Write the structure tokens for this entry.
Amino acid sequence: MRTIKYLFAAVFILSVTTLLAQKEQSGAINEPGYYDFGDLSYLQSGPDETEVLLDEPILKSISKMSNNEDPEFEKALGNIKLIRVSGYGVTEKNMKDVDSKIEETSKNLLNKNWDRIVSKVDKKGQIAVFLKNDSQNEICGLVVIVKRNNQSVNFVNIVGKLDVAALGKLGGKFNIPSLNKFKETIGDDKPEHKEKKDKK
Amino acid sequence: MHNINEKLLNKIITTAYGDGSIADKISIYAKVITNGEIRKVFFEYRKTKRTIHTMKHFEMDPSFDLKLSEKLTKSKGSHIPLFAELYLLFIEKPYVPSTAILLITAAIVGNLLFKSPVQQITYKERFTKAEITEANAQAKFALALVGDVLVQTKKEVAAEIMIKQVAEPINEGLIIINNLLN
Amino acid sequence: MKSIKFNYLIKNYKKDIYNFSFYLVKNKMDAEDITQEVMIKIWENMDNFKFSSAKVWIIRTTRNLCIDLLRKRKIYTNNEVEIDEQFEDEFFDNSSSNNPLKILESQSLSDKIKLAIQNLPENLRTIFVLYEINELKYKEIAQTLDIPINSVKVYLLRARRMLQEDLKNYA
């Protein structure tokens, strides 16, 4: 009897696992909002490196764990399927490579019908934001590139249906060391900087 | 092939494959229009290139994932993934060759009933508290990084989002109405 | 975090590794073995793995394993023709069956191209598959194979020409 129970349990668990696995198959990399930045390792010029990669299962686990403690964060997480950040220190040594990677990425994104919604270049650095809309005209992907000369560059891709307003509310909200480090690099940007806007 | 020298042939190939410079493309397209021999060569390469980019390549055996799980489990020093844990828990018990058959049948039936186009495996759906805590911090960092950028550039973003989410659908609607009226 | 990274890498690269190794070793079973071996290496190195350099690392490892295997084969069989025939048999078995109609269908241009690709010399085949099928950029191929970008371009052009010439033989 016990063996039969084990068997049923095994069949049930395996079926559920298989179904979950199947569900995962149509995961973020097949989504229109996914963008592969390609090999970025050559941009590394020192120990400063940030790597974030969070896919749907772990994002769901975060949502469950947060237990409505932070509704804004949960709202921003919403239907996100993937978060990827690759960040590097920017020095004189890799500045050229960083610039050409940003240019190449921007061109590729535009070729793949992403919309450039922000392109801001000033003496201190560069910010570019790209959006991808799905067939229902809803945002399904976001690419953000932030470069601060002689400090850092971050390539970010967020995949899934995005609540841009909720994301905006998170700006400057979390007091975590890596974020502080980031904010040191871009946080002193003031509106008076020369802005250049490119529309596709 | 008499009129096509090495240099020209190279340009034809790179243009047909879509890699040529703009100058090369313009000069080759002009020649394609006017010269039958060049046109023939160009379209031969173009056809090959298009076929390569649309053809299906080799498909893996459906049992690949299971075999990989087994190998990963046996591989020295590796942490056992959940899928392999389950596999080991039941398959490696002495009393159950029939269990193995049942499990695999169940997986196959499950797969057939809920078939999805690509065959892949999730190695872990369960995370430790430490993993979730770390992931939580990373998610906050990433979203706040994006949030900061959006706040800094909110004028442009707001305007563009308005255009994307409001103006474009309205325009599309107007176009449809115009088409209906005409 | 290890399993999240691993999941992501497998989803992203499993098919690329398999296709690349199939074109190189021309044999389904060996291609599967190599794909598994690469995955195990990824798992074992997961703690030090960087996504940003993953593609180059994975393709380089795959290529090294394929080359090792081809070398071993040369020692044991020293018979390239036999291996190519084996590939052809497996390839047609894979895509058709014994149905004559399907065999006819399988003689399409894409099948001819697959065979023509496997006829390319190893160095040209590697670059051709990496660029045209795995969609690596010149820079990534140069990094993977440790050769200058210009060499990549020259080899790619040679491969395209040779492939086109070879296709005429299947016409």
Summary: Chain C touches chain B at residues 1-4, 6-7, 10-11, 14-15, 18-19, 22, 28, 31-32, 35-36, 39-40, 43-44, 94, 109-110, 113-114, 132-133, 157, 160-161, 163-164, 167 (CB under 8 Å).
